[in-house]
Specification:
The structure holds 2 protein chains of 2 kinds.
Chain A (H helix, E strand, L loop, with lengths): L10 H8 L17 H4 L7 H26 L13 H8 L7 E3 L5 H6 L4 H5 L12 H4 L10 H15 L6 E6 L6 H13 L3 E7 L2 E2 L2 E2 L19 E5 L3 H16 L5 E6 L18 H8 L3 H12 L4 H23 L19 H15 L6
Parallel strand pairs in A: 1-2, 2-3, 3-7, 6-7
Antiparallel strand pairs in A: 4-5
Chain B lengths: L16 E5 H15 L3 E5 L15 H5 L4 E3 L4 H13 L3 E5 L10 H8 L2 H4 L9 E6 L14 H5 L5 E4 L3 H13 L4 E6 L6 E5 L12 E4 L4 E5 L3 H14 L4 E5 L2 E3 L3 H11 L2 E8 L4 H13 L8 E5 L10 H4 L3 H11 L12
Bound molecules: thiamine diphosphate and magnesium ion.
The site of magnesium ion has 6 residues of chain A, from strand 4.
Chain lengths: ~375, ~350
């Protein structure tokens, strides 16, 4: 796991970043730009480690491609692709400490991958077998939140609990540009500021909330809202894995050191449909998509490696082998998933006995028994 | 606001009849209401260019402009709260909630403001707001996309709560809902969006929104359903008929207030009552109907009313939804029960 060599951020450092359009370390052409504020936060990231981040991004994109294919083949009911958002997810997730907690939305499959969530658990929900498929405590990552914005408040509560326990870990919450319109998300920022909660608000501005462009949610940059709540914010090129990592490390460091919440707007793009049910050609132009394809987070790293002469056959082969093996395991895990038991409909509703529900369970069992021997 | 889209000749009023899906009949009802009254405006998430996730508002923004078909920021409390203000200013907002499970961020605005403003202002303020909600399960979706929250709203004084079950009713009921000066929760049976039927665009007479419809007369058992389960109940009527049992099917249509006159008249004829809905049993509409009919028609009942409903569980994952949802066999089993014929609970004691 990557670790930062620098600590000691200050609010003024974060504020400094606030008035630029966005901060960037590796541009779309793969050129590395110096940035005195960010550079020290990723000074320890060697080219080998950058190659690991590259591998992660290729693998999660491959998972996405496989999942989309599985949905087309009828193996999944639905899938929310992260295509185009790999740098935002990998750069932030790989900045986390193991004891930092994650409150995600539904699109953070790349983040879940970094937390070693079993591959079949990434699709159990989308296969219609469960509403949530892993134990949040085990992976320090909550199950997906489909209700837009809800998880941001949970992050604040969890973070306040962390501090009351005397721990120094942080909570990162992921949400979209659309989610910034919800009351919950705005309340979360207010609560986080009030309680100085160790929370990183990580907004993936992928420019779309289903068919609605980001300008419908925010008249100005989304990042400009947080300072009004008393939360410093950073606007970062979300397709630049290194810059995302630097920004997240700054925010995490503030949280770990008792500095309170930070807001990160990662400017990225949803290159795929909202979900496999969506048809983006109804509302966005091919030109816009092409413009963002040119800023692809993976391609730019390849260009960077090329320029440095380190995009070796060995690296390519290694990454391909990893992606192939993850894809094979992912497909098999999906197809071989065991159907949930019929009577599990009644499980986990609550902890204390509920006689009304138990009666319904027993009567439904009696009803099913009627059909035994029929087919 | 300025109108950015030219109105086109597509606004020609539909006449005669056409075969439409239920979804398209709602589109037609919206279009007609907008043509008839320029104070009618639509607002919701993704209802403009996309035409809504179910394409119910497809084409309406192109036809009526971005002032009257408004894509809103992603916030249900915002959608409803803004509708309240628009209504106070003399507009007739028709708000779309994308899915049943997303209505709750707007719940406070609905129950504390929309439902109560007329009462709180001693009649000075009217809330002619229609809130359209695709509801119910059976589409294999992920969580929060298959819920049946109608009872929460039926429990709230001041709201009319209705659900349509076929294209003609969808068209007529929606128009009456929009024309109503009271707020109406309009629940659309999403798994029936694609079922087709004949729609007469200018019916001479329509059944008032608050009235239930006797779909098919019968003499042995009264079966009450609404929304998505009316189609299932029709299958039950046919299957029971093959078995020599005559079911009178009532499509409730209005969930609040309930047309108890129609239900009671039927029960006084049949002496037996079965109610079905997808929503959980406890605190549901079925209990309300059973209790009210028992109170007023006890002497006519020959058996205890039976409910066939979703369980008191959250809506389950798609792989299990067939068990949660009332189906033909479960309805027939309840019909057997009220008829005193062998059924799954024949040996049940207590
Ligand atoms: C409360 C609520 N309202 C509406 C929806 C339907 N919905 C699901 S995703 C989505 C758009 C979310 O956009 P954004 O926050 O930008 O996240 P992205 O999907 O782009 O990752 C909407 C409207 C929902 N899930 N929850
Ligand atoms: Mg978005």
């Amino acid at each position: 796991m990557l670790r930062t060599t620098v600590s000691n951020s200050s609010d003024s450092e974060v504020d400094l970043l606030d008035d630029r359009d966005y901060v960037q370390l590796i541009d779309a052409e793969g050129r590395r730009h110096a940035n005195p504020t960010l550079d020290r936060w990723i000074a320890d990231v060697s080219d080998d480690q950058l190659a690991d981040l590259y591998e992660d991004m290729v693998v999660v994109r491959r998972i996405d491609v496989e999942a989309t294919a599985l949905q087309r083949q009828g193996e999944l009911g639905l899938w929310p692709p992260l295509l185009g958002q790999e740098a935002a997810q990998i750069g932030s997730a790989r900045a986390l400490r193991d004891d930092d907690f994650i409150m995600p939305s539904y699109r953070e499959n790349g983040v879940a991958y970094c937390r070693n969530v079993p591959l079949d658990d990434l699709v159990r929900v989308w296969r219609g077998h469960a509403h949530g498929s892993w134990d949040p405590t085990e992976y320090r990552m909550a199950i997906p939140a489909v209700i837009i914005g809800a998880q941001t408040l949970h992050a604040v509560g969890y973070g306040v609990g962390v501090r009351m326990d005397g721990a120094d870990s942080a909570v990162i919450t992921y949400f979209g540009d659309g989610a910034t319109s919800q009351g919950d998300t705005n309340e979360a920022m207010i609560f986080a500021a009030t309680y100085n909660a160790p929370v990183v608000f990580f907004c993936q501005n992928n420019h779309w909330a289903i068919s609605e462009p980001v300008r419908l949610q925010a008249a100005k940059h989304i990042s400009e809202r947080a300072p009004g709540y008393g939360i410093p914010s950073i606007r970062v090129d979300g397709n630049d894995v290194l810059a995302v990592m630097a920004a997240t490390r700054i925010a995490l460091d503030r949280a770990h050191r008792g500095g309170g919440p930070t807001f990160i707007e990662a400017v990225t793009y949803r290159m795929g449909p909202h979900t496999t049910s969506d048809d983006p050609t109804r509302y966005r132009s091919a030109e816009e998509l092409a413009e963002w394809k040119a800023k692809d987070p993976i391609t730019r790293l390849e260009k960077y490696f090329e320029d440095k002469g380190i995009f070796t056959d060995e690296l390519k082969a290694r990454v391909k082998a990893k992606a192939d093996s993850v894809a094979a395991e992912f497909r098999a895990g999906c197809k071989e998933m065991v159907e949930p038991e019929t009577m599990s409909v009644f499980d986990f509703v609550q902890i204390e006995a509920n006689p009304v529900l138990e009666r319904q369970r027993a009567q439904y069992a009696a009803y099913l028994a009627n059909f035994e021997g029929e087919d | 606001m300025t109108t950015t889209t030219e109105t086109t000749n597509a606004t020609a009023t539909a006449t005669g009849t056409a075969t439409l899906t239920l979804a398209k009949s709602i589109t037609a009802g919206l279009r007609r209401s907008m043509q008839d009254d320029d104070k009618v405006i639509l607002l919701g998430e993704d209802i403009g260019k996309l035409g809504g996730v179910f394409r119910v508002t497809d084409g309406l923004q192109a036809e009526f402009g971005t002032d009257r078909v408004v894509d809103t920021p992603l916030a249900e409390s915002g959608i409803i709260g803004m509708s309240v203000g628009l209504a106070m200013r003399g507009y007739r907002p028709v708000a779309e909630i994308q899915f049943d499970g997303f209505i709750y961020p707007g719940f406070d605005q609905i129950v504390s403001q929309v439902a109560k403003l007329h009462y709180r202002s001693r009649g000075a303020v009217r809330m002619p707001i229609t809130i359209r909600v695709p509801f119910g399960g059976g589409i294999g979706s992920v969580e929060h996309h298959s819920e049946s929250p109608e009872a929460y709203f039926a429990h709230t004084a001041g709201l009319r709560v209705v659900s349509c079950s076929n294209p003609q009713d969808a068209y007529d009921m929606l128009r009456e809902a929009i024309a109503s000066d009271d707020p109406v929760m309009f629940f659309e049976p999403k798994r029936r969006y694609w079922s087709k039927g004949e729609v007469n665009f200018e019916p001479e007479e329509t059944l008032p929104l608050s009235r239930a419809r006797v779909v098919s007369p019968g003499s042995d058992v009264t079966l009450v359903a609404y929304g998505p389960l009316v189609a299932t109940a029709k299958d039950a009527v046919a299957a029971a008929a093959d078995d020599g049992v005559s079911i009178e099917l009532i499509d409730l249509r209005s969930i609040a207030p309930i047309d108890f006159d129609t239900v009671a008249a039927s029960v006084r004829k049949t002496g037996r009552l079965v109610i079905t809905h997808e929503a959980a049993q406890s605190g549901g509409i079925g209990g309300e109907i059973a209790a009210s009919i028992t109170e007023r028609s006890f002497n006519w009942l020959e058996a205890a009313p039976a409910r066939v409903t979703g369980f008191d569980t959250p809506y389950p994952p798609a792989a299990l939804e067939e068990h949660f949802l009332p189906d033909l066999d479960r309805i027939l089993d309840a019909v057997d029960r009220v008829l005193g014929r062998p059924n799954s609970l024949s040996d049940w004691e207590d």
